[in-house]
């Protein structure tokens, strides 16, 4: 762990940071649409909430895959020169 | 804490602790050397996934055996709510009653099984590894208890869903019909489009399968890693000077509680998403373009 290359550290930061931008903007847009829809048709609120959580999981998917890979680089880096 | 025990010997650094906890118990006895190696089997993933499957079957069987058609008890009511939820989802996504006879129980299996496997993440990080180290007498034994935090576990399930999609494609459209669709959808039936259509279909199958498996893996791996980092925060008690240790220890209890509560949502959500996507992908095999 003490010999992790500096570029790998930067890479981990970029993976997580850039992924977070996309995920957060996506969730924000979708959440806004949900609230708007709930205000237009309150009777659909519960049904739409289920779908909203499903979509939240899908939107977060690529970001969390990136987090998993970045964590792997941080702790079990396959690229370290021995 | 493992670090306190090994303080007499050289205590592992934070990185070593995490790397040790991320190493699978496999047939080679050490961490896997290359990224893809089919000769290595992760024994801990196999054991815990089978154990969770058996637990799920045992629990549901026990409740079902005592089911009454009168006023249900709490367990029966809970199981009925679960089955009704899965049945509603299956009914709305799979439009063939004959397929539903197999796919709806499959969806229930996937949901309960993935939920139980994900829930292994709620156990304290060191608990089962300590027990395993005591059992085998090897203080450096590896054990990872969450089968869905292993890419092999999740990709295994998503590849099985892919195989089921192919099976239903052939069963419903016929081999010739499915071949025709592979070369003519989605862009159209024209000889120049055969290759783009086929490439697009292959990419679609690959992307769906890989994202299906890796989504669950990423969520569970990141969750497990965060629990390990929180455990490291607590372990600082013995090795930090002055007030840092106790403050970090209190911080790790707070952080651990908050993350565990949030993780309950993630565990349920990811199991639900995995089940829904399995249903959606199998349902897509029923549609024709």
Percent of residues in helices of chain B: over 70%
- Shape summary of chain B: globular
**Overall pLDDT of chain B, averaged?**
89
Structural Rg of chain B: 23 Å
Rg calculated over all Cα atoms of chain A: 18 Å
Q: Tell me the structural class of chain A.
A: mainly alpha
Straight-line N-to-C gap of chain B: 59 Å
Largest interface: A-B, 21 and 24 residues
Q: State the major sheet of chain B.
A: none
Tally the beta strands of chain A: 0
Average pLDDT of chain A: 86
Task: Explain what this protein looks like in three dimensions.
The complex is a heterodimer of chains A (82) and B (289). Chain A is mainly alpha-helical. Chain A is built from 2 helices and no strands. The model of chain A has no long low-confidence stretch (mean pLDDT 86). Chain B has 289 residues and is an all-alpha fold. Chain B is globular. The interface between A and B is medium-sized, with 21 and 24 residues.
SSE layout and pairings?
The complex is a heterodimer of chains A (82) and B (289).
Chain A lengths: L5 H35 L4 H31 L7
Helix pairs in contact in A: 1-2
Chain B lengths: L1 H4 L8 H9 L20 H23 L8 H20 L3 H23 L7 H10 L14 H34 L9 H46 L4 H41 L5
List keywords for this structure.
heterodimer; A: 82 residues; mainly alpha; 2 helices; 80% helix; B: 289 residues; 9 helices; 73% helix; globular
Short description:
Chain A has 82 residues and is an all-alpha fold. In chain A, 80% of the residues lie in helices and 0% in strands.
